[in-house]
Amino acid sequence: MQIDLRPSALTRSLRDGLFVSGAVLLALTPLLVMAAGLDDRTLYGRSPWDKPLRFALSLGVYALTLSLAAQWLRERMPVPGWRWLAPLLSATLVFETAWIAVQAARGVDSHFNEGTPFEALMFSLMGVGATLLSLAVLWLGLVAARRAMVSPLPAERLIAFGMALGFVGTGVLLPWTGEALVDAGRSQSAFAAAQALPLLGWRLDGTDPRPAHFVAAHMMQALPLMAIWLTRSHSPCQPAMSAGWLLAMAAGVVLLTLGLMP
Fold this sequence. Notes:
Radius of gyration: 20 Å
Number of strands: 0
Oligomer: single chain
Helix content: over 70%
Number of domains: 1
Largest sheet: none
C-alpha cells in the first residue's frame, strides 16, 4: 500500500501566512465585540469599536478567500510573484487593522482624519494598502482566467471562470467605489447613529457609496461560490449553461454596484 505523504489542504493552509492572518482577524472579532460592550464612549453616536469590528470581519474574509484561491491555483499552475506578494499582503492587513484599532482606542477616526500630519500620513498609507489589496485580487483573477482557458477539466474550468469573474470584478470595482468614498470626503462614521444602519453605518438615502463598496468587495466570494455550486448541481455536459449563469450573476452584481452608487 502506498502512503500519501502530501500535506493535507488544512496543513497547507496553516503554513500560509495570509491564511493565518485572516484566521487571526476573525478570531479577534469576539474581543472587539467585548470592547464595544465595555467601552461606553461614542463616536458620532456609535461605539468607536464598530469600525475595527467591521474591518476585522471584512479583511479576515478577504485574506482567507485570497489564500484559498491562491492555494487552489498553485496546485494547478504557477502564480508569478505570489511568494513575495502573500507576505506583503499579510503585512498590509496587520498595518490596516492595527491602525484602525489604535484610533478606536483613542476614540477618534482612522479614515479621513487629517487632524495631525502623522494621522494624514497614516491615512495616505492606508490608501496605498487598499490599492495593493485590490491589485492582488485583480492579479489572481487574471491568473484564474488563464487557467479557465487551458484546463482540460470542465468542472475546473468553471471554477476558474467564476474565480476570474469575481476577482477581476472586485479588483476593478473596489478602487472605483473606494475613490467615491474619498471624493465624498467623509469617514465611515461621520453620520449620526439615528441616520444609519446599526454596525454598518450606512445611509440608504442614495447619497452613500458604502453599500456599493460592500457589494464590490464581496463579488470575489460570490462568483467562485456560485461556480462551485454549479459544478455540483449541473451536469458536466452543460458547461455553456453554467458559464451563462456565472456571466448573468456577474452582470447583476455590476449593475447592482452601479445602481447603489450616488
